[in-house]
Design goal:
single chain, about 550 residues, alpha+beta, Transcription Regulator spoIIAA, six-stranded mixed β-sheet, 24 helices, about 60% helix, globular, disordered N terminus
Length: about 550
């Protein structure tokens, strides 16, 4: 079906009527998502310092429960690579091993409850408070940490440090200590992932890349006999193969996989820092992902961000109570969901049902998956979060966005994710103040809306319009009907930052798709930092 025919087709029904109407397309997408999510959920859990079943539990809860209470339609909920850094840091901070795992489960439950309450208080829009480049810097730094921590596992050796910078400095030593057979599995998995990015059609394009990787790795694992404990010689050196350390280990009895949080951990130093970190990353990623999926939905449906926040919070709390990871609205799987023809929330439910059924009936097959292949999947995922393309796109918006982006990354790698995000936001405030934004303009925008009662709405924005006062602009935009003609008068705006320009651009797209239109006046009075359409701009008269 072409994009034109989709856009004019009737919007699919929701709930049981939607299942009856669209079960054929949703079951196909749900099955494909199951094939994608299963290996990723296992890898994310193990990279987070938790048992592999922790990822499976989160994926099942996200599909079976959250799908039915969320405020979105084609979004997929489950564990995500973006949460790896905060979870593994929490496990280490709270004692490591089994103690750190059970203490972190308590932090996940409390964080989930907080997100649930925040959603009830309509806090979904707060995710838009954070500067776009700081958020991108946060995700890029997460990607870098994932690559550095999973690279040794991909080569079959133990990480030589816990600190990202030290891991980078010891990469050469990691390569020299690689276990050749395990490294062959990891490198082959990476080569497959890279090669598939160049495949534009054919049967390979229709098979999810994680499944091709896992099946190839399992075949190579059988060839190398890594399912049995043994030693072998290579280039005059002896290497050991221990299946317990080379393969996924999940209980074949699902009930025994469930475990419970240790709430006595609330008294431990750093516990509430873990709660805050998990809540921040989970909340921001969920809101941003849901907003991004709205743009992908061919039927132009809009998620209730606050309802989604509550649903993800409740799902994470339940997942944590059972021994699972927290979850978010996951953008990569959601994109695959739309691409494979999903129409309703039932594709999310069915993907969770397929995971549950597979683990219940065939858990022993999961235990044949080499860890090196999962590590390769995560290294590739980390690369996509921090690829040179991301740096290039950020720099194209303007030098100040590059400064925020790099600051967030460097401080995060040198210290902690929360400190990195705080540093990025602090630099953003400092730049705005140096550009003449007054203190009383930081959190409240000067906005006036003129509605002629017919078909035209004029939105006058004066003084500074920046990321931290955008919510006071947003509350006026929310009340404008989608079929209205909207005119933004920016002639008296002294400064408009990139984050606000990006939000206004998104609003214009939504308005046009709803049958309305958007135009801007007064833009000719502003100087742009770069040719990018959403670059920040300062009034020329104010610059003199």
């Amino acid at each position: 079906m072409s994009s034109e025919s989709i856009s004019t087709a009737p919007v699919p029904f929701d709930r049981l009527a939607g299942l009856k109407q669209n079960w054929k397309s949703d079951i196909v997408s749900g099955f494909i998502l199951f094939l994608i999510a299963l290996p990723l959920s296992l890898g994310i859990a193990m990279a987070s310092g938790m048992p592999p079943m922790a990822g499976i539990i989160a994926a099942m809860v996200g599909g079976l429960l959250v799908s039915q209470i969320s405020g979105s339609y084609v979004t997929i909920n489950g564990p995500a690579a973006g949460l790896i850094v905060v979870i593994v840091s929490s496990v280490e901070r709270l004692g490591g091993g089994s103690q750190g795992y059970h203490a972190t489960l308590a932090a996940i439950v409390i964080s989930g409850v907080l997100l649930f309450i925040m959603g009830l208080f309509k806090a979904g829009e707060l995710g838009k408070f954070f500067p776009a480049s700081v958020v991108h810097g946060m995700l890029a730094s997460i990607g870098i940490v994932i690559m550095l921590k999973q690279f040794p596992i991909m080569l079959g050796t133990a990480p030589l440090s816990k600190e990202p910078i030290q891991l980078f400095l010891k990469m050469g030593e990691t390569v020299t200590h690689a276990n050749p057979e395990i490294a062959a599995i990891g490198v082959l998995s990476m080569l497959i992932l890279v090669s598939l990015t160049f495949v534009k059609g054919g049967i390979l394009r229709k098979i999810p890349a994680p499944i091709i990787v896992v099946l190839s790795a399992c075949a190579l694992g059988i060839f190398f006999h890594i399912t049995t404990k043994h030693s072998y010689a290579f280039c005059g050196q002896s290497f050991d193969i221990n299946p317990a350390k080379c393969l996924v280990q999940v209980p074949t009895n699902m009930v025994s996989a469930f475990t419970f949080p240790d709430f006595s951990a609330v008294k431990l130093n750093g516990f509430w820092l873990s709660v805050l970190s998990i809540t921040l990353v989970q909340g921001i990623e969920t809101v941003l992902s849901c907003a991004a999926v709205d743009k992908l939905d061919p039927y132009k449906r809009h998620a209730n961000l606050s309802k989604d926040l509550s649903a993800v919070g409740l799902g994470s709390a339940i997942s944590g109570m059972l021994g699972g990871l927290p979850m978010i609205a996951e953008i990569v799987r959601s994109t695959a969901n739309v691409a494979n023809g999903a129409k309703t929330r039932w594709s999310n439910f069915l993907h969770g049902l397929f995971i549950f059924s597979f683990v219940l009936l065939a858990a022993s097959l999961i235990n044949a998956i080499p860890l090196a292949s999962l590590a390769a999947l995560l290294v590739f995922t980390g690369y996509r979060l921090a690829s040179p393309r991301v740096f290039k796109e950020t720099h194209s918006i303007g030098w100040e966005q590059t400064l925020l982006f790099v600051t967030t990354i460097v401080v995060t790698l040198a210290s902690d994710l929360l400190i990195g995000v705080a540093a990025g936001v602090a630099v953003k405030f400092l730049l705005h103040i140096l550009r003449g934004v007054r203190i009383n303009q930081l959190f409240k925008a000067n906005v006036e809306v003129l509605d002629d009662g017919a078909d035209t709405v004029i939105v006058k924005v004066a003084d500074a319009a920046i990321f931290s006062n955008y919510l006071s602009i947003k509350k006026y935009l929310t009340g404008i009907a989608p079929d209205k003609k909207v005119i933004f008068d920016l002639s008296k705006a002294t400064f408009i930052d990139h984050t606000v320009m990006e939000h206004l651009h998104d609003f214009a797209q939504d308005q046009v798709s709803g049958g309305g239109s958007v135009s801007f006046t007064g833009m000719e009075l502003h100087q742009c930092v770069s040719p990018h359409p959403t670059s920040c701009r300062k009034q020329a008269t104010a610059a003199r």
